[in-house]
Design goal:
single chain; 221 residues; alpha/beta; eight-stranded mixed sheet; 6 helices; globular
């Protein structure tokens, strides 16, 4: 089981969920959540990373706007979540990610970033601006930043049914970040990894997770 930690970021203090493996860590991963806040799903993601041998730290970015805020994963929650992340801004999100990464690095770990949707763009920016190995899942806000060169390895996951990320946008990732690993999953919609919500697509989620663990195993040695 994990535990809460306090991070003091340039934009303010946030709580963060920390999960550690039983044995010697294979590296450390900062987990960046989507527009609903730090759902229990992301605590579970941290636990799964810990089971795979990685330290995982997930900042509750919404604490910078409203401490403890977690939204329902319905249309009303999505509408409010978009308003919150627009108020929060990617710069503060990236600063909080950097704070978490520096804390883990100071403990002697090589650090990567794993992000989902809004957090997937935070992960992209971690690769381009912080030079951290990063995995980005179904991030709709990536295109304006794809001209920024990545300073670290990058992996991206998309679903064919995700209307918010059409094929042309996926192709743009391949064109602008040709070194990145780009995977597209049939019959997978936006948030296909978010178990147990209805968008969850188990086959796509399982394959993407295996690829994600292989990525961090390789690049966080």
């Amino acid at each position: 089981m994990g535990d809460w930690q306090t991070l003091y970021t340039p934009c303010g203090a946030v709580q963060a969920w920390l999960a550690k493996p039983d044995g010697a860590p294979r590296g450390a991963v900062v987990v960046a959540h989507e527009i609903f806040g730090l759902l229990p799903h992301y605590q579970h993601v941290c636990e799964r990373l810990a089971q795979a041998g990685f330290i995982a730290l997930a900042p509750a970015y919404f604490d910078l706007i409203e401490p403890g805020l977690v939204l329902p994963t319905d249309q009303a929650g999505a509408d409010r979540g978009r308003s919150i992340v627009n108020q929060l801004g990617l710069d503060c999100g990236l600063d909080a990610t950097d704070t978490a990464a520096q804390l883990l690095a100071c403990e002697g770990h090589k650090v990567g970033v794993l992000g989902f949707s809004w957090g997937g763009t935070v992960a992209l920016l971690a690769a381009t601006r912080l030079s951290l190995p990063a995995v980005s899942y179904y991030a709709t806000r990536n295109p304006p930043f794809l001209d920024e060169p990545a300073g670290a390895p990058l992996m991206l996951h998309f679903g064919t049914l995700d209307a918010a990320i059409p094929p042309a946008a996926i192709d743009l990732h391949r064109q602008k970040q040709p070194q990145a690993q780009v995977f597209v999953y049939a019959d997978a919609d936006h948030a296909f990894n978010r178990d147990p919500d209805p968008p969850h697509q188990p086959d796509a989620a399982a394959l993407a997770w295996r690829r994600t663990l292989d990525f961090f195993t390789e690049h966080l040695r």
